[in-house]
Amino acid sequence: MRGRSAALVAAVLVGCARGPDLRGLPRVELAAPRLLEAVRPGVAFSASLGTACPLAAGHLVAVMVDHDPRARPQSGLGAACLVYEVPIEARFPRLMAVFADGAPDRVGPVRSVRPAFLQVAAELGAVVAHAGASEPAYRYIRSHHAPTVNEFSNPQAFWRDRRRRMPHNLYASVPRLRELVVRKGLHTPASRPPVERLAYTLPEGRPASEVEVPYPVGFRVRFVYRGEAYERVVAGQLQRDETTGLPLRAGSVVVQFARWRGWHAGRVDVSEVALVGNGRGLAFVGGRVVPVTWRKATDTSPTVFVDASGQGLLLPGPVWVSVVPDDLLVAFH
Fold first, then answer.
1. 322 within 8 A of 294, measured Cβ to Cβ
2. Rounded to an integer, what distance in angstroms lies between the CA atom of residue 266 and that of residue 104?
3. What is the rounded end-to-end Cα distance, in angstroms, of the chain?
4. FRET pair for 195, CA 20 to 30 Å: which of 34, 48, 112, 302?
5. Element housing 332 (H / E)
6. What is the rounded CA–CA span in Å between residue 85 and residue 71?
7. Could you give the maximum distance between any two Cα atoms of the chain, in Å?
8. Domains of the chain (ranges, CATH numbers)
9. Strand 93-99 and strand 82-87: pairing?
């Protein structure tokens, strides 16, 4: 086991040492998310998160999803176009599932929101459904007028499954959330920011069929490339959608390294993840890995992932982004 771990770490160190040679690959200019569908019908591609969820109609809804072991298996994640996984207090990760035209009737369990998720939602123009928030998140919502649906004050789209114990038993319906969003006037078409125009290059990195994300015990993740998609293994178990029973599959996986810090505020633990700025990352596409850098200038600016030559990457959807504290190593092979 020790030898395997050393080999994996070595693979990471080698993989991050330099970018892949992309000089011989063609450049393709794409102006809008809809044009990306022509590359592979029915599949969305993105260099920024905004194009991971192209809309045929309506608006984006993001739901905060519990990832505590007692909340698994979760419902609705398999229908999301984008899932953001971010470490909160004690570095335990929480999930935000984003839905475009997908509309599952059961998503959850639903939990509270943190500022980092609100920053991602801001760039997408998404309305966030949640059950409570940390004090920094409440301040963010008030100061930025962030469009959210809080179960505490808007319970119409939420219910509890009495077969599970609180607080891991609250669920939401995306169709009901959409109705509530329209009724409350929380979203307008103009609120979704435009997607940045980039030159795209098909990625050609070194082989990497498996990636291990070093979250705390009970939350550790492996993404395994099988059948043109990445299946997700959590705490040694293949993760499935509770509603469908199907394994969770991602068209591409991005590991986004970011600064994490936590502190005590009286009797409450508080955490912060720096998703505005820039940093490094790893993009896993088609069984290969490409070292990337990410940048996000403001809360509403798109998070853009580019390769070593500065070109945006084609990321087949659905996209799963795992944010990892930048003092940790991610192993892949």
1. no
2. 39
3. 14
4. 112
5. strand 331-332
6. 15
7. 58
8. 2-50+197-332 (no CATH), 55-191 (3.50.90.10)
9. antiparallel
Cβ atoms within 10 Å of 40's Cβ, excluding its own: 12
> Beta partners for 254?
283, 321
CA dihedral 54, 285, 49, 279 (to 10 degrees): -170
pLDDT at 333 over 80: yes
Residues 131 and 147: their CA atoms lie apart, in Å, by 14
Residue 307 has pLDDT above 90, yes or no: no
State both tokens at 75: 């419902």
CA–CA dist 319, 304 (Å, integer): 13
Cα radius of gyration (the chain): 19
Strand partners, 234: 221, 237
Answer for the pair 290, 19: CB distance below 8 angstroms, yes or no.
yes
How remote is the C-alpha of 142 from its chain's centroid?
24
Name residue, tokens 């771990």: 5
Q: What is the mean pLDDT of residues 44-56?
A: 60
* In the predicted structure, residue 116 carries a pLDDT above the cut 90: yes
| Cβ neighbours around 25 below 10 Å, total | 14
Which of 269, 267, 266, 231 minimizes the C-alpha distance to 250? 231
This prediction's pTM: 0.83
**CA 275 – CA 294 distance, rounded (Å):** 9
Task: Sort residue 108 into left (φ over 0), alpha (ψ -120 to 50) or beta.
Answer: left
3-state secondary structure of 122: helix
